[in-house]
Amino acid sequence: MSYFQKHVKTLKPFILHEDNWARQLLGFDVNNNMRISWKRHTFPFITGSYQSWKEERTIAREIDLIRGDKRTVIVLNIGVHFRAYPVYYFIKKLYNTRRAIERLFLRSPETKVIIKTENTSPMKNNFETMSDFHASVHYFIMEMVFKGLNIGFVNGWDMTNAFDTNELHPSENVIENEIKMLMT
């Protein structure tokens, strides 16, 4: 979202007057009849700050609320916040998401769905729970769960490996290349 806000000059932010870092972000481009929104997923969410979860919904529920059409593109980034939890929880979330995408395609088969896979991350802290080992396991599980669906992938794992970066939040150079891959 930050990349689009910085590089699409006609995209104007819509301020929702939320005051935490994980607030929903909206941008409107009236010239191109485009709306971009970003919203975090609900639990689990690893953070050191207090967050209100009062109005949060699961990824599957958010997808179920989208009408979809040929101009709708949904991009999901499912990953790092699930590393510290048992893998069966991650698998359950993925299957719920898959079923929601299947329901979306029943009501709107022309909707585009893109999944950005996990990227590599630093190996400094929390090595046992947050290591790339767990990320690579999640990556392969994700490929298996979504196999056979008419969706696209932006391969964050390969992209961050190619750039030889291990940042939890990759540099703008990596993000730019992921966006270019997304737009193709």
Structural features, described:
With about 180 residues, the chain is α/β, with parallel strands linked by helices. The chain is about 40% helix and about 15% strand. It has seven helices and six strands, in the order αβββαβαβααβαα. The chain has helices at about 1-5, 60-65, 85-105, 125-130, 130-145, 155-160, 170-184, and strands spanning about 10-15, 25-30, 35-40, 75, 110-115, 150-155. The chain has a three-stranded antiparallel β-sheet, with no helix packed on it. The chain is globular. It starts with a helix and ends with a helix.
Please state the CA-atom Rg, rounded to the nearest Å.
17 Å
How many strand units? Answer: 6
Dominant shape: globular
Termini separation comes to 18 Å
Q: What's the average pLDDT?
A: 83
Strand order of the largest sheet: 1-2-3
Q: Low-confidence parts lasting 5 or more residues at pLDDT below 50? A: none
Q: What's the story with the biggest beta sheet? A: 3 strands, antiparallel
Helix content: 25-40%
Oligomer: single chain
Helix-strand pattern, N to C? HEEEHEHEHHEHH
Approximate strand percentage? 5-15%
List the total number of helices.
Answer: 7
Structural category is: alpha/beta
